[in-house]
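Quick check before the chapter quiz. The format below is the same one you will see on the exam, so make sure you can read both the input and the output lines.
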Amino acid sequence: MNLETLRDYCLKLPGVTEELPFGPDTLVFKVMGKVFLLTPLDTPHHSFNAKCDPEKAEELREKYPDVKPGYHMNKKHWNTVYVTGSIPSEELFGWVKDSYDLVVASLPKKSQQELKNN
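Here is the expected output.
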């Protein structure tokens, strides 16, 4: 997975927008205005921050050396994932989708219904 592949995947999910709210170095993906993924644009090694169920977040950190507590994020709910090739792309995409789904589940019912109708 590279940055372009990650970007394409995120933008295909319903209701997703991309922004640079923290300046030109961090690409942020939101669903219905809520952040579900961030990725730096100015680092030599690709990584991203994704929301995660707290128990699963701990499990992933124990299982994979390239999964760390979320950099500049709530360490309980966010992981930083370093994309080095040690984790299969299918798993990475699954974690992105899990992050998206967690954020969608926290949206008001009206917003969730709006997403389903698109």
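If your answer matched, good. The two ends are 27 Å apart (CA to CA).
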